[in-house]
Each structure stands twice: as structure tokens, then as C-alpha cells.
Design a protein that fits this description.
Keywords: Sigma factor, Transcription, Transcription regulation
Helix content: over 70%
Protein name: Sigma-70 family RNA polymerase sigma factor
Distance between the termini: 33 Å
Family: Belongs to the sigma-70 factor family. ECF subfamily.
Oligomer: single chain
């Protein structure tokens, strides 16, 4: 559950929403007719279920927003993030400043520790695409950290 919540947080930027998506994903997984038997297959499958729940919610939100606009009502989302240390806050800000694609791949590979093959299964793209995205996302993160003059992330040699 903590890893699933971490992944959904990378998608949503909102811990409460992420926890709801993670719980819905687990419910959906428990109701599934076909569940992978192997643990190495189950984990990426569950992340894929979570991403589908996220996508479904975003579609529903879009429909609600369009309805609200026609009725003259706009909804607002406020994201509050806190951090215990300045450096952690800066790293978090740099991470959240990345595009959603970069955040997603860094979460799967660097934070949750999925293999490239598992991440490819979750996102449903070829492994080569995963490798390219990881490289671009890490470079973008380093650039943002350099802009802030903070260096907790170093290039692997």
C-alpha cells in the first residue's frame, strides 16, 4: 500500500486523492477475475490498475468541470505541501516542477524501484521508451536542482 500510494501521489500531487486512488485500485484488483499469480507480475499489474483508476477519475473530473462551466460554477483544487527541511522542500518542488511523464517514470524507477521491464508494463510502452524517459527525467531533475543550487542528486558514473 505505501508504494502504491507513493506512485499515485506522483500522478496526483495530492496525498489524500492519491490514497483514495490506491484504495480504489486495491478494491478493483480484488474484484478482478484474473490476477497474476507471480509476485513479480502482480506488483506492476497493480500499478497499472492504479493508473487506470487515476485516468478514470481524470475523465470524470473533466466531465464534471465541463458541466460546472455550463452551469457557471468552477471548482478549485488547492495543494498544500509541507516539508521538515529546506532541502527536502526544494527537492520536492523540483520534482513537482517536472512534467507528469517525468514524475511518473522517476517514481516508478527511482522511488519505487521497479525494473525497466516492470515500468514498461505499467505504462504500456516498450523498454527502450522507458530507458529514454528515465534518462530525460533524471537530466531534467538535475537541471532543476542546479537552478536551485542544491545537489542531492548526482549523476551515476
Amino acid at each position: 500500500m505505501p508504494e502504491l500510494t507513493a506512485y499515485t501521489t506522483s500522478l496526483t500531487h495530492n496525498r489524500v486523492e492519491a490514497e483514495g486512488i490506491a484504495q480504489d485500485a486495491i478494491l478493483r484488483a480484488l474484484e478482478a477475475r484474473s490476477i497474476p499469480k507471480n509476485l513479480s507480475e502482480l506488483r506492476p499489474w497493480l500499478f497499472r490498475v492504479a493508473k487506470n483508476v487515476f485516468i478514470d477519475r481524470k475523465r470524470k473530473e473533466r466531465v464534471r468541470r465541463e458541466y460546472s462551466r455550463t452551469e457557471g460554477r468552477l471548482s478549485e483544487n488547492v495543494i498544500n505541501q509541507t516539508s521538515n527541511t529546506v532541502q527536502a522542500l526544494i527537492v520536492r518542488q523540483a520534482y513537482y516542477a517536472l512534467g507528469s511523464r517525468d514524475r511518473e517514470i522517476l517514481c516508478l524507477i527511482d522511488i519505487l524501484g521497479l525494473t525497466y521491464a516492470q515500468a514498461a508494463e505499467v505504462i504500456d510502452v516498450p523498454i527502450g521508451t522507458i530507458m529514454s524517459r528515465v534518462s530525460r527525467a533524471r537530466r531534467a531533475m538535475r537541471e532543476r536542482m542546479d537552478d536551485l543550487n542544491v545537489h542531492p542528486i548526482r549523476k551515476k558514473r
